[in-house]
Amino acid sequence: MRQLQDKVVWITGASSGIGEALAISAAEQGARLVLSARRETELQRVRAACLNPQNVALLPVDLTAFDAEALAARATSFFGPVDVLVNNAGISQRSTVLETKMEVYRRIFELDFFACVALTKALLPGMVARKRGTLVVISSVVGYVGTPLRSGYAAAKHALHGFYDALRAEVWRENVQVTLICPGFIKTNVSLNAITADGGQHGVMDAGQLHGMEPAECARQIWAAVAAGREEALIGRKEAIFVRLKRHLPGLLSYAIKRAKVT
């Protein structure tokens, strides 16, 4: 695939996992990249792994506290207007509703929802003016199906679907593409980095992630969905069954989720 040739692609959460794999794949397709995450040393490692690292700019940022307009201006200063924004940065959760502090919920929403919205709004006027642009939003299967210990994470991902479905209906005539990506179990550190009831780090690799799809294959499927102009894409080996059950047999799915061993 070379659909990203000479495109300017800005990826958040690019220091590991899905974001890293998307960056490496996009570089192979000839994209010019702007990579963002908190850890600059990890971004440097990802840049070194990319083809033509001279076409990879680093823009470290904490997306829980930032100026979206200023950050977007810096992103465009490297290679010009951003053609593709990949809102990938996020954090998961491992705690019950009874235990979880409100500041934890607010932290999840700041990163998983409000940061995406803020960056989208900062770049959207330029995309509309140019009559082209692509917004890729990394949601989750949990954006369809809420599960125990992930109430805040599920809520933020559900919110992404509502916002970007509405946005798509507003801007499709302006040739702005909105693609929601819903991965299932991917072999990343998402469970290790998940936050607990008091905001601490979970620090445990869940079995689902450990045996999940390789990030490189996930990235391949994501870019294929974007190239095909898909509005939504489920990425995973078997996880799509949960979405189908939610639509067609919700009672059965509810029964199963209530009794599932969730970590």
Description of the molecule:
There is one protein chain. A seven-stranded parallel β-sheet has the order 3-2-1-4-5-6-7, with helices on both faces. It is 47% helix and 13% strand. By secondary structure, the chain is an alpha/beta fold. The model has no long low-confidence stretch (mean pLDDT 94). α9 (240-248) crosses α10. The chain has ten helices and seven strands. α4 links the parallel β4 and β5. The protein is globular and about 50 Å long. It has helices spanning 17-28, 40-49, 68-79, 102-130, 151-171, 190-193, 207-210, 215-227, 240-248, 250-259; strands at 8-12, 32-36, 56-58, 84-87, 133-138, 176-183, 232-235. The protein has a single domain, classed as 3-Layer(aba) Sandwich (Rossmann fold), CATH 3.40.50.
Radius of gyration: 18 Å
Order of helices and strands: EHEHEHEHEHEHHHEHH
Low-confidence stretches: none
CATH architecture type: 3-Layer(aba) Sandwich
Q: Going across the biggest sheet, name each strand in turn.
A: 3-2-1-4-5-6-7
Indicate the structural class. Answer: alpha/beta
Superfamily (CATH H level) name? NAD(P)-binding Rossmann-like Domain
Helix-residue proportion: 40-55%
The name CATH uses for the topology is Rossmann fold
- Counting DSSP H or I runs of 4 or more residues, the number of helices is 10
CATH class: Alpha Beta
Mean pLDDT: 94
Cα end-to-end separation = 37 Å
Sheet with most strands:
7 strands, parallel
**Envelope shape:** globular
Our count of domains comes out at: 1
